[in-house]
């Protein structure tokens, strides 16, 4: 059995266990578990590094979702116990990366390749895009889950005026710091697994370490883009009946900010797409 076939077997077995465990612990609902199984299988089969980034995002975000649940329930209109994610949320956070992983694996015949634009601009761009994708997803999740627990009052990113917690586009220093740390975790996952599974030429091996600061910056930048989109294209209002910030208009809701153009999933998809492209371009310039 060749290495790619073995990796496929490992991918299916590990993904099945993780998806079942996530469903049992209510991190994913049934549709999310099914989608998660296929997405994880694709990532791990394409490259252990891609799988490591996906799992670093999934496990860390699932853990943080459960931190301070009582407080989040009083502030978040879409709060679900355990943070259950459905298939739409799974695909909005990993669908694009899965496509990039398939293309990259097809171009390399399933062989893991280091970031090296001198050998392959296309593969380097694709891998860079996957890094940016998960740095952005993790940055947005960490900043949302930890930022809402900050004692500081958030400020709207467009004009820096104080807003209520839960307002789309509201930022805190704690949230921005969390986004940077989240990107750092993605970079570490990529580099550490790469050291164990991927052979690089000596002249480019040290460059792979640049993924850590790159992913950290992508986590912060992705969170800022997400906040900017949320503040301008996603509606936020205060409901006098429910006593919390909501994203839907009604007679009892007073507008805080934003237009009713994108919902939360759409904001995530757009910000991830932008960061995927941006990080891909940066990787072509520095590797």
UniProtKB/TrEMBL annotation:
Subcellular location, record wording: Membrane
Membrane protein topology class: Multi-pass membrane protein
Signal peptide residues on this chain, from the entry's feature table: 1-22
Record-level GO cellular component terms: membrane
Regions that span the bilayer: 32-59, 90-110, 176-197, 209-233, 266-286
Annotated coiled-coil segments of the chain: none
Keywords: Membrane, Signal, Transmembrane, Transmembrane helix
Top-level taxon: Eukaryota
Family: Belongs to the TMEM19 family.
UniProt name for this protein: Transmembrane protein 19-like protein
Source taxonomy: Eukaryota, Viridiplantae, Streptophyta, Embryophyta, Tracheophyta
């Amino acid at each position: 059995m060749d290495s790619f076939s073995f990796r496929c077997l490992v991918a299916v077995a590990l993904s099945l266990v993780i998806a079942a465990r996530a469903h049992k612990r209510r991190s994913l609902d049934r549709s999310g578990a099914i989608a998660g199984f296929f997405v994880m299988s694709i990532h791990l089969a394409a490259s252990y590094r891609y799988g490591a980034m996906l799992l670093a995002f999934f496990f860390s975000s699932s853990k943080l979702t459960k931190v301070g649940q009582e407080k989040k329930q009083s502030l978040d209109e879409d709060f679900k116990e355990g943070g259950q994610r459905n298939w739409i949320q799974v695909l909005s956070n990993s669908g694009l990366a899965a496509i990039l992983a398939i293309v990259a694996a097809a171009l390399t015949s399933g062989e893991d390749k280091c970031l090296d634009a001198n050998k392959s601009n296309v593969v380097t761009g694709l891998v860079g895009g996957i890094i940016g994708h998960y740095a952005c997803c993790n940055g947005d999740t960490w900043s949302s889950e930890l930022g809402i627990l900050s004692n500081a009052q958030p400020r709207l990113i467009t004009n820096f005026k104080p807003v209520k917690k839960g307002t789309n586009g509201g930022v805190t220093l704690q949230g921005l710091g969390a986004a940077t740390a989240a990107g750092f975790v993605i970079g570490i996952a990529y580099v550490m697994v790469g050291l164990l599974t991927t052979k690089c030429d000596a002249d480019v091996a040290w460059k792979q370490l640049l993924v850590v600061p790159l992913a950290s910056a992508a986590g912060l930048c992705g969170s800022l883009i997400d906040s900017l989109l949320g503040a301008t294209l996603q509606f936020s209002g205060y409901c006098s009946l429910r006593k919390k910030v909501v994203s839907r208009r009604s007679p009892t809701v007073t507008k805080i900010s934003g237009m009713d153009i994108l919902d939360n999933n759409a904001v995530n998809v757009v910000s991830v797409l932008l960061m995927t492209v941006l990080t891909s371009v940066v990787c072509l310039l520095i590797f």
